[in-house]
Specification:
The structure is a homodimer of 136-residue chains. The first copy, chain A, is mostly beta strands and 136 residues long. Chain A has a single domain, classed as Jelly Rolls (Sandwich). Chain A is globular.
């Protein structure tokens, strides 16, 4: 799907606890720093749909497991991936794509978004879950 | 201590899982984006000492609890704070301060560093734990 980049990330084990990569300024996924924040999503719960008109998202899941579903209106197509410590990749999402995500793990399912813009409700659109039909 | 900023951060509860602030580009703690990475520190283990000569660190603990100890050679003084979900604050550390941190929680003690520079071993100095004496 156009506007999506999946980048495998390193988890570096050390005797005192691992180091986990997220995002470097020199990587092509990086288009600017606006804000970093976390979002936890409880098991079975789904946050979405949301479409950003200007923000690029860089999503990393350092704890638990989250299912991401992206819908492209232009391509009329879905993209789906589960991310977490078992599949530790960064998901970069360009503007103009619809995004929803679901908690899969029993405990904490923690998402870090390194976003290219600060949170601004004016630059995002929301739809009810049922407005974009997907077999969750 | 000069070169240290502690900033209380919001945890916003929602029925599907909380949102936790980390860092915005418009905040005074932000001096540039180089890299974001995670570091886990096991209970009782101590990572340090490390001093960065150019990097500013922005440290956030979204899971567990971590004890941070900062040593200023210039002031010959220590600064100590425990951060985590129970005391959810961002710790901004300017260059030229010695930093060490210890895992306090039983499970995951997860640190996010939003660093002003990419990792570069040339710009950091390391000392053995015993080289800067502190009552851990």
């Amino acid at each position: 799907m156009d506007g999506i980049i999946l980048t495998p990330l390193k988890i570096i084990p050390t005797p005192k606890g691992e180091v986990m990569h997220a995002l470097k300024q020199s990587e092509t996924s990086f288009v600017g720093f606006g804000e970093a924040y976390f979002s936890n999503v409880l098991q079975g719960e789904i946050k979405g749909w949301k479409k950003h008109t200007r923000m690029t998202l860089n999503l990393i899941v350092p704890v638990g497991e989250i299912r991401f579903v992206i819908f492209s209106e232009k391509e009329n197509d879905f993209f789906e991936v589960n991310l977490g410590t078992k599949n530790y990749q960064r998901l970069t999402i360009s503007p103009d794509l619809w995004v929803a995500f679901q908690g899969i793990g029993k405990g904490l399912n923690l998402l870090l978004n390194v976003a290219s813009l600060e949170h601004d409700p004016q630059e995002a659109e929301n739809k009810e879950l049922r407005e974009i039909r997907f077999e969750w």
